[in-house]
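Field: COMPLEX_INPUT
Field: COMPONENT_COUNT = two
Field: RESIDUE_TOTAL = 650
Field: MODE = joint
Values follow.
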Amino acid sequence: MPGTDAMKLRKIGSFFVGGRTVTLDGLPVEQRRLAIGAAPRPVDPNGDHVTGQMYVQEFRLAEPRCPYPVLFWHGGGMTGVNWETTPDGRPGWLTRFLEAGFDVLVSDAVERGRSSWSMYPQIYEGAPLFRTKNEAWDMFRMGPPGSYATDAAARRPWPEVQFPPEAFDAFAAQWVPRWVGHEAMTEAAYGALLARVGPCLVVGHSQGGGFALQMTQRYPDLIRGVVALEPSGAPDTAGISDALPPHLVLWGDHIADHPVWTRYRGAVDAYVSALAAQGVPARILDMPQEGMAGNTHFLMMDRNSDALAGRVIDWLAAAAEAAAR
Amino acid sequence: MPGTDAMKLRKIGSFFVGGRTVTLDGLPVEQRRLAIGAAPRPVDPNGDHVTGQMYVQEFRLAEPRCPYPVLFWHGGGMTGVNWETTPDGRPGWLTRFLEAGFDVLVSDAVERGRSSWSMYPQIYEGAPLFRTKNEAWDMFRMGPPGSYATDAAARRPWPEVQFPPEAFDAFAAQWVPRWVGHEAMTEAAYGALLARVGPCLVVGHSQGGGFALQMTQRYPDLIRGVVALEPSGAPDTAGISDALPPHLVLWGDHIADHPVWTRYRGAVDAYVSALAAQGVPARILDMPQEGMAGNTHFLMMDRNSDALAGRVIDWLAAAAEAAAR
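Field: COMPLEX_OUTPUT
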């Protein structure tokens, strides 16, 4: 990888895909003060609201070296910030992939970050979930179950953990609320994104990794290679055909110490086996087996994130070359 | 301006400023399904939550031509997306300022976009406001009051309107919910941002313009020039001193047709007069008086956004040069 070379871009921009207008009526009008020093004024929630839209930030290189852009799809309760500067301040995968010659599109999934969210119960059914640091520490496999403490000095991460434990609180600033049951809306937006972008490579993480596998079944003509980082689910094997592009799945360490991840991984690895059985190029990269101990759920933020980016970049470059032949 | 020249960057990254941890307890545990195909599992909202943090995206040029970065602060119910590609697909001010040689930092104000938001009523006091297209059409001065219709073809914009009316629905996809009464929290985050960034130039719009004027009073050593685009409020004149940096305020068209904007502008123009009376370089650019008709509240998205960017860039370059002397 070119390291700290400057990035020469022809475009830094953004757009929205998907979404529809919902008209509300019959709700009460409120009197509210809306700005510093301003007098209260009536606020009427009745009228037209946009819902289901998805924000996409677009980085186009002056001279891309790959014919296909890479789409980064983050996981549940996250935003596209996951791919930017790591919580301990190192360049993230967005930078590394641009340096490697890929155009990059980073989306905030529907309902999250710059994609906005909608009133409940009028448009969304109910309230979202907010992930605590306590739960995340376990779920993201920073340390043994129950090793979180409010006081950072009292936390007990795995001794070999690759995520910088001192940056865990900074990482928590990235988290956003998430709803359950919004899969169809989110998939519709990803479909609109693929239709707009055309042939591409997709890198999805966690819930976004599950979406990436799902959308690859649905749009095998558009997705030319898919990388799922610790996907939290896999689609039905009935949807597999030999028209699917190459698949790569990455797993970090300590899966066996966490029953939820053991279950998720079981389903995903069975899916990868089914892909391979149908002749689809499909590979699992198990980091501990590769000699890298201590990777957490957030592989792209771990201390060895550059090494992992390098593996994924090489694999994607090969997939793109095969697809372009 | 260099037009379509490529942008050579040394850094595309992000960071968070401000925020604190709140510990919740005594709330009920729920059973929820969290991913495609996954089994329901307990979700415990009790524990540690981050609140009050602010997201900042950072674009650093390989060879900036100005010693100070420009900080873009958006308005109420918006995010940093306001400064990116315009809703009708043209390069926005982020691109134009990079092309002009400024490093640029774009924040999402606290509670908005990638800055996330917090549970209510446990952390925030109550529910947010959601702006309808109906209200926004009037408030943003797209057409005469009451000229909005759900059917885009039936809307009646001002004949000379500079905002592309056909892009109004695309623009609505950018809007996010906003809370009232969060000024102190937001100002704390802007203060943390200024402390981290150091000497800089600030461009604020609407509510963000009001914050820009306020923070300039508080940090006259750090803000070397401030531009407020249609600020929706002004700080107390008692805080004015001759140590304040140069101020520029921009106003679009049809202010007199809208009582709320007439009132906001009255307060702001009185503040600018008070600045001038104390010897602070302070200027009002009234677009209709400058021969530009039809500008809306969203000057940086209007059809003449490049011309307006040029005016602001020239003014900021002069302010920066004066400050650096």
